[in-house]
């Protein structure tokens, strides 16, 4: 039997951009038993097979239909570089339209494997100390392009290893791509797809207050991470231009609402830049605005970025800042640096290493 697509479905169906039920409906409309969707999802998400030819329990006509009318991935790995210091892996991925993004695979001391995925081509927020912000925003990634990063990195792992955590901390502002972000999280947490617990997924934002409100109403217990970087609007306006639209007061109001609705602790990311936001007054101000908020602060010494003159404070200065926050009863940790030697640390992603 040879299957033919029904009218209106002649374009390639992106499996990684749809739920299993949506795929089952598509198959049924094309006279293929809907239970085949579960089999396909098994091969893709449980066995990391990304070629229809390897789906050995499917009839040849079904495999032929899939090859002709469906796609699994929306991109391919062009280059992978590995950190000599901590085995962090950075992947340059070429999307189907030729645009480039970067994704990172990080290994923790407890053997957790975390996939750091991008959500946009370029970045629409343009924080001044971030390499991603120097790359002009082109478009949002589709759900399929987000999931494809995970599938590609997962396939590159040795047998017996698997990705345990997802962080939306790559290139782009996740909350400006909310619908595709939500659909991707649905697939990551689907037991028949990624099977990753919601509490092992972190969404990072530069402070899109209305979308934080939307995330608070989303029925998934994901983690929220807010890139703050200053306790003062005047300074944050310079570092994070988005602050001119959603100032610190509006941002914190959205965060408090998020905590109230989800009962979840929120993480505030704070990149320490020498002479910019690392003074005692900055630490005291940070302690003041975060008082009585269920949160923790990640202190991140600035990672050097080519073309920018910013510098990181010394270890002594970082520790002094940390102690002031502790004195003000703020839960604070200094984030461990990962992949610094391959420009995959916080703020260093820009999809440009192929040119080097």
Task: Give a verbal description of the structure.
With 356 residues, the chain is of the alpha/beta class. The protein has two domains: 59 residues, DNA polymerase, domain 1 (Orthogonal Bundle); 281 residues, TIM Barrel (Alpha-Beta Barrel). It contains ten helices and 14 strands. Strands 3-4-5-6-9-10-11-12-13-14 form a ten-stranded mixed beta sheet, with helices on one face. A two-stranded parallel sheet has the order 1-2. It has a two-stranded antiparallel ribbon with strand order 7-8. The longest helix has 15 residues. The relative contact order is 0.12. The N terminus is likely disordered.
Write the layout of secondary structure elements.
Elements: E1 13-14, H1 20-29, H2 36-46, H3 60-69, E2 70-71, E3 75-82, E4 89-95, E5 100-107, E6 113-116, E7 120-121, E8 139-140, H4 143-155, E9 165-168, H5 178-189, E10 201-205, H6 209-216, E11 223-227, H7 233-239, H8 248-262, E12 266-272, H9 280-289, E13 295-301, H10 315-327, E14 332-334
Parallel strand pairs: 1-2, 6-9, 9-10, 10-11, 11-12, 12-13, 13-14
Antiparallel strand pairs: 3-4, 4-5, 5-6, 7-8
